[in-house]
Design the sequence.
DNA sequence: AACATGGTCAACCGCTAGTTA
DNA sequence: ATAACTAGCGGTTGACCATGT
């Protein structure tokens, strides 16, 4: 096993991709696929190395890619998966459809790691209790998703405001660890996809939709109907 | 207004595992 | 069996932007 020769890098362009290069790459892959990354740039007429083309496609140009802010659920999923998988970003990315390992890695280093560290400090030396950390993070998530919704539950004609603990008790554990699953309910699928503003040039999220009253019903429905599934079955046990 | 600092993220680098001849 | 080669992975870098002083 030897390393690939780097001599071909000579004369190759580096740095940010231009829209023109993106278009060439997209067009070529649509026509011919990407069975051979090394040969692709030459055939496509790009002055880039195969590695660079592959990275650009996987991390940015792929049509199924989901760009923009991570949802609280996605962040929690990353935290949970990182707890069990460590820095295996590609394995974590495999559980988050539309997210790339690079993006997840960036989010971890820029947001989540810091957040966990802060939580560690706030816990007065109880730093080794990862469950405690996770619970605090969950609380943050629950606040963002649940508390905004008015949680008046009608019970025998008596209006009763649920406490945080009550709400938490309703939340199935899998809600926090499972990737949002798509069931046969086409309406739900449409709602979910509708969160992505496809009209945006960079497929960014329209965050207002996450907390929009009209969509809150969807989130609540998702929340309460979540069930444990045989998730992460391919994750080896340690 | 100008500069310093910190955060974000696209892209690159170096390595390993898998495949092929 | 072995060397050559490719794809993919994780770590790191650096440009750009926002915010603070």
Sequence:
């Amino acid at each position: 096993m030897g390393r690939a020769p780097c001599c071909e890098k000579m004369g190759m362009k580096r740095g940010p991709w231009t829209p023109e290069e993106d278009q060439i790459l997209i067009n070529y892959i649509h026509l011919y696929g990407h069975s051979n990354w090394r040969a692709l740039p030459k055939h496509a007429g790009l002055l880039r190395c195969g590695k660079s083309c592959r990275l650009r496609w996987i991390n940015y140009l792929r049509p199924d890619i989901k760009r923009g802010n991570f949802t609280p659920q996605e962040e929690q999923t990353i935290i949970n998966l990182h707890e069990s998988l460590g820095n295996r970003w590609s394995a974590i990315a495999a559980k988050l459809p539309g997210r790339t390992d690079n993006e997840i890695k960036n989010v971890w280093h820029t947001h989540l790691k810091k957040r966990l560290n802060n939580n560690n400090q706030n816990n007065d030396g109880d730093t080794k209790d990862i469950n405690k950390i996770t619970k605090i993070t969950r609380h943050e998530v629950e606040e963002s998703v649940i508390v905004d919704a008015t949680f008046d539950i009608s019970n025998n004609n008596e209006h009763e405001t649920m406490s945080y603990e009550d709400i938490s008790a309703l939340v199935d554990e899998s809600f926090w660890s499972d990737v949002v699953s798509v069931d046969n309910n086409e309406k739900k699928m449409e709602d979910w996809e509708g969160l992505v503003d496809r009209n945006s040039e960079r497929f960014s999220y329209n965050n207002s939709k996450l907390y929009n009253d009209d969509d809150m019903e969807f989130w609540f429905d998702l929340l309460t109907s979540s069930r444990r599934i045989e998730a992460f079955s391919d994750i080896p046990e340690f």
Notes: The CA atoms of residues 1 and 38 of chain A lie 17 Å apart.
